[in-house]
Task: inverse folding
């Protein structure tokens, strides 16, 4: 925003008080928000889909919900490693998708695939100039998405047997790739059912969520 | 991108041209559209690889020049160049190509901006090794063998190609291998042909070369191959799918979401849903006046004929559970008292152990004593029947086996316990005998080699009176320890392994397995004097019944397995309907319930002399 406008706005804010305080998240802040969202998403999926036992999770308040995050040291370390790289990529805008694939340990089959599409909205947003969302609105969007993820256990098929999970990202070709990350196929569910969940977004990012799963035979 | 560019140039031309199929595909792949489009056939990547013709290697100088200019080096590869030509720049590129020698043209095309797009890693992989040096050689070889079909097509179509090419390339998705169909069939073929023409006038790739190259491709770089496949499947070339390679930590246990979502707030309550309702009030209470308050005695037994025998000091009473009648069976001599009571398996006889060490066998119907078996020097606190064999354990720690059918009744001495034997139980098949003593030992004896115990278990820290063999798993033995131990241990009597344990927190005075449920009931003394019903094998306590005022000394299970009789030092004999059969289920366990017995007719199954 041009500085002049900013000052106007601050004046206006002064008048109106905090009632309709509008936060314009910087791109950096927005990236952080998305990365954080990914972290909670992964944890939520691991919990809701029973990849790890429920007693390994502890509840924390987030997005106005009780979010369950893993308390298991190994799992925590594993997710932390993923997130540290993801944060870098997000800040660089190198990621277009994050995918959590749940795989059967017995057969190695991909059973479920949670895909989060990230769109950078920089230019488009400027052109259209949609009204910036307040922090509260963003949180509500995320909240309703997590509610949806939680509710999805009602239609997702039972995951039988032991399962494990993998995290994939769709990164730009020029993204720096550390040793621990390697090329992979898309791990699509062949002939799977797809369900699109709610979207949410900040002024700079839009996140679409899609779960695909194998239909029960 | 740079890397990719390097690889491509060499391969692309030769390969494309040489094989028909490849030719058709190739044009697709090289064109930016084709790559991007999800439709591209999986084959495309291999086609790219083909491009590396050995022949091309010869040309290195040319390539170097062409590619060298571009940052991409070789990466643009011939194919890429072609592609670019076809799709976007088609007219220009062609024209340029046509003019000079085919090879040189190709190289130029690579240099074109289009090439950059091609730069995708996939390409690079395929082309990488071969490209730079090869070109010149290629010509020679190609001209010899492979040119024929493809070129021809190409020649014919060349004119058309310019117009059609862009669209055609996108459609090309499935390259068919048919060589001949080329022109009519798909644009791709055409385009391929076109390329071939342009490039090749002289250069056609030889088919032979191509094939050899094909073999190599898969080997060369599997990763690249994969990525190329991914690209073919519609993944945008400019993005890479990356997986976090370390595998996720193991889950500590298998999870069943069904249970997770049914999970009650407290884990203990989870069993409640499946818990059957157990009556916690006694069905009947009888007085047992004069019951000797001695933990080491066994004064209560319930016969298969549904009669309960109880030893009350010097008297033995038989209560008929069918009719409710009580008969006094006998009275011992004044200098001794009854220390144990045990029904024979057929329910016709009852053995009485006496404080004097004698064992008497009584016919209950006739109310007559059949014989007296002496041998023990001290009181006989526990007995167990195995058909005609009666095992008796005494205060001295000795266990004797008596065959009640023969005059020389003592058939074996089982000497292991150093203190009073208070628990003794034959397995239902008679193959093993478990004994527990005041020396805190559990011995398991094998009937075939009775001299020494098969297993001696020292885990209990107090006298072991409670012993019970599992009715549905023959080699499973439950043992309960006394006041300082309070544990129930479960043993595999075959391997001697302890398979489970429960710390009950209370003295275990007797154990009975249910015949109707996968459960067992334990009777306790200090401090709680309760009955516990446990599920097995999950060892969940289904119910705890505060049964008596004082410690429960003895218990006996009815022949139908539904009712447990307990007597305690409060001189009450109580009957508990703990294992009531489900209404629907047939009475499988035993004939005769407490109410409708099979009658009093006794079938005597052995003759006692």
Result:
């Amino acid at each position: 925003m041009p500085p002049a406008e900013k000052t106007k706005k601050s004046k206006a804010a002064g008048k109106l008080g905090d009632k309709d305080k509008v936060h314009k998240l910087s791109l950096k802040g927005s990236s952080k928000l998305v990365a954080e969202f990914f972290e909670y998403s992964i944890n939520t999926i691991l919990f809701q889909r029973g990849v790890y036992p429920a007693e390994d999770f502890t509840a924390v308040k987030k997005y106005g919900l009780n979010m369950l995050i893993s308390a298991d040291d190994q799992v925590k370390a594993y997710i932390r490693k993923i997130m540290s790289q993801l944060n870098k990529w997000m800040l660089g805008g190198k990621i277009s998708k994050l995918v959590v694939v749940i795989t059967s340990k017995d057969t190695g089959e991909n059973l479920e695939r949670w895909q989060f599409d990230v769109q950078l909205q920089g230019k488009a947003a400027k052109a259209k100039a949609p009204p910036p969302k307040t922090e509260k609105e963003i949180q509500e969007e995320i909240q309703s998405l997590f509610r949806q993820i939680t509710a999805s256990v009602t239609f997702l098929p039972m995951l039988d047997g032991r399962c494990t999970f993998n995290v994939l990202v769709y990164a730009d070709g020029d993204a720096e790739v550390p040793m621990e990350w390697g090329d992979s196929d898309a791990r699509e569910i062949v002939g799977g059912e797809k369900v699109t969940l709610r979207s949410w977004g900040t002024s700079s990012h839009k996140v679409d969520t899609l779960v695909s799963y194998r239909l029960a035979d | 991108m740079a890397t990719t560019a390097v690889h491509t140039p060499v391969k692309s031309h030769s390969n494309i041209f040489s094989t028909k199929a490849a030719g058709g595909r190739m044009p697709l792949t090289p064109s930016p559209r084709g790559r991007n489009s999800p439709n591209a056939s999986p084959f495309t990547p291999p086609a790219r690889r083909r491009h590396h013709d050995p022949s091309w290697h010869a040309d290195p100088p040319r390539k170097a020049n062409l590619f060298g200019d571009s940052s991409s080096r070789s990466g643009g590869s011939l194919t890429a160049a072609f592609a670019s030509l076809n799709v976007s720049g088609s007219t220009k590129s062609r024209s340029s190509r046509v003019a000079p020698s085919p090879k040189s043209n190709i190289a130029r095309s690579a240099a074109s901006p289009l090439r950059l797009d091609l730069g995708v890693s996939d390409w690079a992989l395929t082309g990488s090794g071969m490209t730079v040096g090869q070109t010149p050689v290629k010509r020679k070889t190609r001209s010899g063998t492979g040119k024929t079909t493809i070129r021809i097509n190409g020649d014919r179509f060349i004119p058309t190609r310019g117009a059609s090419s862009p669209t055609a390339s996108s459609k090309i998705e499935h390259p068919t291998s048919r060589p001949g169909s080329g022109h009519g069939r798909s644009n791709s073929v055409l385009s391929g042909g076109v390329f071939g023409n342009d490039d090749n006038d002289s250069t056609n790739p030889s088919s032979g070369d191509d094939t050899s190259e094909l073999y190599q491709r898969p080997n060369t770089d599997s990763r690249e191959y994969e990525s190329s496949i991914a690209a073919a499947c519609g993944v945008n070339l400019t993005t890479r799918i990356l997986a976090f390679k370390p595998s996720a930590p193991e889950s500590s246990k298998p999870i069943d979401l069904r249970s997770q979502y049914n999970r009650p707030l407290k884990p203990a309550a989870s069993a409640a849903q499946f818990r059957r309702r157990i009556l916690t009030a006694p069905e009947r209470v009888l007085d047992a006046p004069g019951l000797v308050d001695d933990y080491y005695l066994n004064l209560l037994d319930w016969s298969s004929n549904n009669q309960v025998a109880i030893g009350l000091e010097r008297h033995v009473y038989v209560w008929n559970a069918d009719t409710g009648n009580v008969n006094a069976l006998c009275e011992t001599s004044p200098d001794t008292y009854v220390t144990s009571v045990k029904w024979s398996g057929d329910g016709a006889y009852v053995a009485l152990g006496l404080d004097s060490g004698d064992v008497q066998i009584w016919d209950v119907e006739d109310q007559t004593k059949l014989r007296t078996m002496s041998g023990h020097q001290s009181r006989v606190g526990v007995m167990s029947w195995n058909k005609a064999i009666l095992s008796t354990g005494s205060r001295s720690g000795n266990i004797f086996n008596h065959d009640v059918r023969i005059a020389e009744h003592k058939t074996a001495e089982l000497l292991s316990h150093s203190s009073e034997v208070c628990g003794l139980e034959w397995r239902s098949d008679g193959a093993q005998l478990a004994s527990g003593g005041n020396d805190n030992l559990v011995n398991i004896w094998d009937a075939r080699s009775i001299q020494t115990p098969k297993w001696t278990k020292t885990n209990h820290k107090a006298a072991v009176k409670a012993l019970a063999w599992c009715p549905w798993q023959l080699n499973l033995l439950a043992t309960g320890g006394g006041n300082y131990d309070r544990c129930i241990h479960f043993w595999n009597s075959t391997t001697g392994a302890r398979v489970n344990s429960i710390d009950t927190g209370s003295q275990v005075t007797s154990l009975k397995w249910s015949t109707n449920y996968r459960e067992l009931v334990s009777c306790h003394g200090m401090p709680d004097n309760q009955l516990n019903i446990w599920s097995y094998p999950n060892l969940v306590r289904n119910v705890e019944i505060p049964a008596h005022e004082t410690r429960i000394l003895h218990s006996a299970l009815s022949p139908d397995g539904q009712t447990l009789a307990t007597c305690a030092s409060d001189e009450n004999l109580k009957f508990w309907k703990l294992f009531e059969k489900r209404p629907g289920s047939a009475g499988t366990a035993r004939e005769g319930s407490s109410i409708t017995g099979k009658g009093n007719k006794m079938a005597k199954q052995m003759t006692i002399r």
User: Anything to note?
Assistant: DSSP finds 18 helices and 29 strands in chain B. Residues 1-154, 158-220, 265-273, 586-602 of chain B have pLDDT under 50 and may be disordered. The two ends of chain B are 104 Å apart (CA to CA). The first strand of chain B starts at residue 239 and ends at 244.
